[in-house]
Request: fold
Amino acid sequence: MTTPEMHFYFDYLSPYAYFAWRQLQPLCQRYCVDLRPHPVVFGKLLDHWGQLGPAEIDPKKTALYKYCYRYAKLHGFKFNPPRFHPYNPLPSLRLSLPEVCGEHQPQLIDKLFCAGWSEGADLGSTTELAPILNSAELDATRLLAAIETQEVKDALQRETELAIDQGVFGVPTFIVGGELFWGNDQLEHIELFLQGKDPLEPECVEEMLARHRGIDRVKIANSPPPLSR
Reply:
């Protein structure tokens, strides 16, 4: 019997991805699911689908941080966000590619998420990334040199493009058995799916999607474009 897989698409820019990651490994262990993490560039997803990120809308950023502090308090861990947000996540994302960190990928993702969202580290700074890598008993010099190669840069671009091809539009996203789930609040639904108890009735969704649009929002020509990453 083929072991089922869960594909986890994430960017360190997202605290919601951190919250999901904290629960994913135990969830996958309970159901004997192989967890396949995929670092992707959130900004490129936003650009492709024509969206703004939460941190680019001031009231939404405020609401996001309030939610995060409440969530962390309720789940018993420290929430201390990065000093700069948004920041350039490319160094951290490239480090997290299996082509770079190999079998240490889960350990490295743990370290980086925790450093960024519980310890306030700047995950866009290679100066701050080096001691994080060393604390994980990884060769910081070798790994930080590797992420400057064109091969690794291309690998992250491919991961992001493949995610878009799969319909990934935000982070965190999970694909299990061909079914896409989005958001850290979807873990309960994922567990039901893994139990074979998914309440979804696909024909109902198809009927809803087939309904005609009654009105379209007019796009304003001078609205600011999404920030490049």
About this structure: The mean pLDDT is 94. The chain has one domain: 5-209. The two ends are 41 Å apart (CA to CA).
